[in-house]
Amino acid sequence: MTRSPQVIGTLIAATWLVLGGCTTGTASKSPGNDASSGGGDDSGPSRASLVAANGYIAAGPWAGYGFTATDPGAAMITPNCAAGCNPPFTGSDFCMQGTVTGRIDYSGFAMLGWNVNQATTAGAAMNTWPVPASGGITVTVVNNPPTTALRLQLQGTDPHSGSDRWCVPLVSGQMVAWTDFTTNCYPGGNPQTPLTAGTMIQQAAVLVPGLQTTLPFDVCLIDIQITP
Questions:
Q1: What is the pLDDT of residues 109-134, one digit of tens each?
Q2: What is each CA distance from 162 to 159, 165, 202, in whole angstroms?
Q3: Helices (DSSP H) in 57-111: which residue ranges?
Q4: What is the pTM assigned to this prediction?
Q5: Helices and strands per DSSP (H, E), number in the chain
Q6: Under DSSP, is residue 57 helix (H, G, I), strand (E, B) or coil?
Q7: Where are the domains of the chain?
């Protein structure tokens, strides 16, 4: 199933750039769309995140508030972080649940994201982080059902632009090199420009890309490992 470049390029334009985080205390906002990943439910693998505390993500050199995002009508998503996360992320839970809308152009999506360089202070600026010349990243999730395709996406300060976001199919617990990320990483996407060392990124996200049929999802971020 090939996703139109025009569709992917405009998926996130309506609600992406929310500035901050979603916690039990403050909810200034922030934002941010294929592959199998580790699965489970409440009776399976632990859903407790190793890197999240009340909606704030801290993993190696990365730190920043988390959020969810979708475009109007593209998904029903909980928590809804369009105007402060409702309900707020609490404790070690960093999950999103809901249903991605089935659309003939595959334009439904849901996103669980976080800022990569942001202080804990309420309303702190979303700063950037330079992509290293070597190494990569391993992201571990609980994905229910485990057959739901996911992507890992990195984005700069202008994620509305297709040239300022890069993605890879997400396989839970499997390291990917920074150079594996490309623009338009979906099948048939063009151009697929590799991420290069020194690129400044501002956010990362786990995305559930839509299908032509309704797609339920339940995704939790468990761990992030950044390898030199």
A1: 999 999 999 999 988 999 999 999 99
A2: 7, 6, 15
A3: none
A4: 0.83
A5: 1, 14
A6: strand
A7: 5-227
